[in-house]
Amino acid sequence: MLEQTQDEQEIIERVAALDIGKAELVCCVRVPDPKGGPRRVQEVTTYSTMTRSLQVMVDRLTDLGVTRVVMEATSSYWKPPFYLLEAHGFEVWLVNAKDVKHLPGRPKTDRLDAVWLCKVAERQMLRPSFVPPIPIRRLRDLTRYRMSLVSDQSAEKNRVEKLLEDAQLKLSVVASDIFGVSGRDMMAALIAGQRSPRVLAQMARARMRAKIPQLEEAFVGQFTDHHGFLLAKMLARIDALSVDIADLDTKIEARLAPFADAVARLDEIPGVGATTAAVIIAEVGDDMTRFPTPAHLSSWARFAPGVKESAGRKKGTGATGHGDRYLARVLGEAAVSAARTDTFLGERYRRIARRRGKKKAIVAVGRSILLIVWSLLSDPETRYHDLGPGFYDSHINPERKKRNHIRQLEALGYKVTLQPAA
Hints:
Nucleotidyltransferase, domain 5, two-stranded antiparallel ribbon, 53% helix
């Protein structure tokens, strides 16, 4: 039996869409017909991405009364028009290119892409991506650049180790950290021309002095002036990066001042330190109204496995997809750090790692940390309370055993009624 419905097509009355490239963009505007009636009219114009040209586009959109502007997240080219439109009070939506499906057989040009995007946007068939407010964006620039410099420094340290291996020096076999005080003194002596294994080994300090015989063996090699020249350049690069990272830490600390309380509460999570907390706030912000539930946040961050259903059967894909790589990196590091603690998260990691492997355990614990972050940022009065490593044994295991026993008895034809013992 057919039933009447009251579905109404909600159309954004005045909308614009931008197809953005590096040098120019195509702007499509769709508005009601000035002559009246149900028809819509559109205007398609190409603008340069230079600021003066973008200002002309903004003035034109203002004259047409456009309220919403939609654009695809194309590399970093979307930022200039997005920021300019945002500053002029437009409702600007950045959308994922995957959400804009192109019809099979339709020719693909910048002009047609802009028109198609505008038609999809006016019918509200898109959802906006998360673009944080300006203070969070400034913090994000600093934290992301810091992570890049830390990666560069790690790469340079790896080059130093490879150079020493090329010179047949096995310092990294004996010393756990060749960039500690002892290691740096030894490498400085190598650069200065010292080649005696005994003299170099005697530079060991503190606990490394117990390894002097092994160090003498490690420094027997073929270190030349050529290696010394390269080693000096690499160490200078590492030191310069250390200075830059320290400067960024100072800037990040200043930017974090308005979020000091949130950072302090996130710092209480096992595996999450002040630096990790700063990156988390920079990536997800401090306003959780953007994510209605913790599941929305974990799904946005791609820390929730996808599910597919076919023929009435649901199948977990096991894959989470690619989300914010900066957030994924710090959550992974936090999960590994939490795994070493005697806490609920540490026990959760160990339980999952035993059954399904370390990689899945890292993702699972990272998701748990993300859910805790949502709860802490959603309510400023909430504090982290650890459930303890014995939570599974004292709460989950007894309930699971009880359910299993009941299920087994019911399968044998019994009706089970539980009554607590006196």
